Amino acid sequence: MKRFWLPLGLFAMVVIGSYDMLRGAAAPLMQADWRLGYEQLGSVFSLGSLGYLAGTLLSGYAVQRMWVRGLVVLGATVVVVGTGVIGLAHGFWSAAAGFAIVGVGTGALEIGTNAVIPAITPSATGQSRYFNWLHGFYGIGACGLPLAAGWILQATHAWRTVYGVLGCAVLAILVLAVARGRTGMAGGTTPAGEMGMTGATSVAESGPTGESARDRTPSAAGDPAPSGAGGRRTSAATASPAATGSVPAAATRTPWRDSVLWGFMLAIGVYVMAEVGLGTWLTTYLVEARGVSLSLASLCLSGFFLTFTAGRLAAPLWLHRVAPRRALLGALGVSLLALGTSWLPGTGTVAGVVLCGVILAGFGFSILFPTLTALASHTFSAQAGRVIGLMFTAGAIGSMSTNAMIGAVASRWGIQAGFSLIWGFLLAVLMMVWWMPDVHGQKAERNGEIVSGYPVGGSAESRRDACEDVARL
């Protein structure tokens, strides 16, 4: 599984990052071709964001039944269709439909590729490492495509051709995913994860007879396995602990009532507000509040995303040596200190210090989203696919709300006050990360819940082992 789905997921994240950035790079050309005003073009892009929000929310639930492979195939198919609609669009409604379809498809494709990680490794540090890889490759697509596409678009104005190239890349992902599934079934057995598993199962969960976790149980949610070559219904001899009642029911229910899930969702939503707010308002802040030239402000923004991407790609080299909670607190501390330079008054030399601080902040920002996702997936391992979908949905809500909030504050009290909200967002995330692990450990020990995939109910030894596992987080 790791040798096929992880490289495919990394490639998919490069393509998704390219899609997100091509929208901005080609916006002037699309606006001219479609004869749209700024408000209409903004509405088209907003519908794309709404489509992504719907795609991530629905896919978080669909992955429990469709498995990773099915979700990747579905998401890639929808993206290909949406790309075709965009390429053929000649007005507002067709363009809006195309972007909405692509948004739904990229949401499903991103959830599918991220749901591979809990199936590869059950450990929090391992998941954090692979999630950082995935989102680091997203950064490669987001940074690399504007450089390549900018030259092509300036020389030829052929934005439809660039979209066509990306559509072909998604089509390749679709063909590979379909072909891999057929190859797995042709041999009479399907290796664990190759037909797609959620975080409730992993390669390490194979039974003593060599049967895969999917053959033993379709998911920790207790959904019946499909009949036929892909899987069989769970029998008493091969039922999972959840199916036989040997673990608490909390392992198999949607953890909506657990305040820790809401804490994770709130933390990642507020973090995305900081990330998107910085990317959107940094240039305006530097030009208007610090007297920096537009070209230098744009260079500073590129420098931030360069360190941001480098930090994610380098994270697997050291994250396995540090507990995820400590890594998050350290990264948040770096981000707060670096962005704290924006509080310094003055221009000139002080503005140069602010520029350096913003660029260095990229290293701190880099691991926050993937590591928060890994912690949530590991903590609620029985519902990992669904929880990943909810985390991405919370991030999408934060992305949609931050610009209006910062804009409203900046309109009333100035751009300095609006930009300072980003520092406040990071401080709020720091407080939530500091609070969540201890509360969850106490709650698990008291209520006998499943924590990080381990049953806490039962003997004192099992409770102690599970709570020690939470403490290490």
Automatic annotation (TrEMBL):
Membrane-topology descriptor: Multi-pass membrane protein
One Pfam family it belongs to: MFS_1
Low complexity bias spans: 188-201, 218-248
A molecular function (GO) term: transmembrane transporter activity
Keywords: Membrane, Transmembrane, Transmembrane helix, Transport
Annotated signal peptide: none
Spans annotated as Disordered: 188-248
Top-rank taxon, per record: Bacteria
Protein name: Fucose permease
Organism for this UniProt entry: Alicyclobacillus macrosporangiidus
Record bears the keyword Hydrolase: no
InterPro entries to which the protein is assigned, alphabetical: MFS (IPR011701), MFS_dom (IPR020846), MFS_trans_sf (IPR036259), MFS_Transporter (IPR051788)
Cellular component, GO annotation: plasma membrane
TM stretches of this protein: 41-63, 70-93, 99-121, 133-153, 159-179, 260-282, 294-315, 327-344, 350-375, 387-409, 415-436
Compartment list: Cell membrane
Record-annotated Major facilitator superfamily (MFS) profile domain positions: 1-440
